[in-house]
Automatic annotation (TrEMBL):
Name used for this protein in its record: Large ribosomal subunit protein uL1
Taxon lineage: Bacteria, Pseudomonadati, Pseudomonadota, Alphaproteobacteria, Rhodospirillales
The keyword Repressor appears for this protein: yes
Gene: rplA
Quaternary assembly: Part of the 50S ribosomal subunit.
GO biological process, one term: translation
One Pfam family this sequence matches: Ribosomal_L1
Job description of the protein: Binds directly to 23S rRNA. The L1 stalk is quite mobile in the ribosome, and is involved in E site tRNA release. Protein L1 is also a translational repressor protein, it controls the translation of the L11 operon by binding to its mRNA.
The species this protein was found in: Novispirillum itersonii
Length: 231
């Protein structure tokens, strides 16, 4: 069994791991327990009553957090001509077509989000086996295959979060920094949970949201009373 370090052991002091905390109280505790030497992220994990092996139980989507994530997001865009210029003007970090495809083939992937115009998907498909496993493959359902590249770039830079349920039925995401004030973190949590609720698949049976927990990057996890998350 893994040994708990002194810092984490100290963070767990005063935390009841079996209690279901009210959201506002939980955020306050998580902020107070974040003692790392860097600005930790607020992490949310949700256990859902779905089996993503079935297509009608997949949960996937995007949410624009009201206060962003606090992270710097590097964006790559597959586009040409006017659309390439629009992407650059909107703040894209890397813009190109064949040259961007070649960069990816060479393993040069210094970006966190990949966007493409519809006419570029033939090129993108040639590096799909590289982008896909990294969660970077442009997808129209996520708004990353679009003619509105400027809007997509701005949304990504502003703190748009993509989510996808894992094999065990868990959705996990970073939804802010512990340096944010409590009110902003609470609003980000509610926006994320609301997006998951709206993404409920047709094949989900029984209790959809089974468990919600919050933690900082290096801190203890707290169970959240689902009723306290509703705005």
């Amino acid at each position: 069994m893994a040994k708990i370090g002194k810092r984490l052991k100290s963070a767990y002091e005063g935390v009841d791991r079996e209690k279901f905390y009210e959201l506002v109280e939980a955020v306050k505790i998580v902020k107070g327990a974040a003692k790392a030497k860097f600005d930790e992220s607020l992490e949310i994990a949700m256990n859902l009553g779905v089996d993503p092996r079935h297509a009608d139980q997949m949960v996937r989507g995007v949410v624009e957090l009201p206060h962003g994530t606090g992270k710097t997001v590097r964006v790559a865009v597959f586009a040409k001509a006017d659309k390439a210029e629009e992407a650059k003007a909107a703040g894209a970090d890397i813009v190109g077509a064949e040259e961007l495809m070649e960069m990816i083939q060479q393993g040069k992937m210094d970006f966190d989000r990949c966007i493409a115009t519809p006419d570029m998907m033939g090129l993108v498909g040639r590096v799909g086996k590289i982008l896909g496993p990294r969660g970077l493959m442009p997808n129209p359902k996520l708004g990353t295959v679009t003619a509105d590249v400027a809007g997509a770039v701005k949304s990504a830079k502003a703190g748009q979060v993509q989510f996808r349920v894992e094999k065990a039925g868990i959705v996990h995401a970073g939804i802010g920094k512990v340096s944010f004030d409590e009110g902003k973190l609470v609003e980000n949590v509610r926006a994320f949970v609301d997006a998951i609720q709206k993404a409920k698949p047709s094949g989900a049976k029984g209790t959809y949201v089974q468990k919600i927990s919050l933690s900082s990057t290096m801190g203890p996890g707290l169970k959240i009373a689902p009723g306290s998350v509703a705005g």
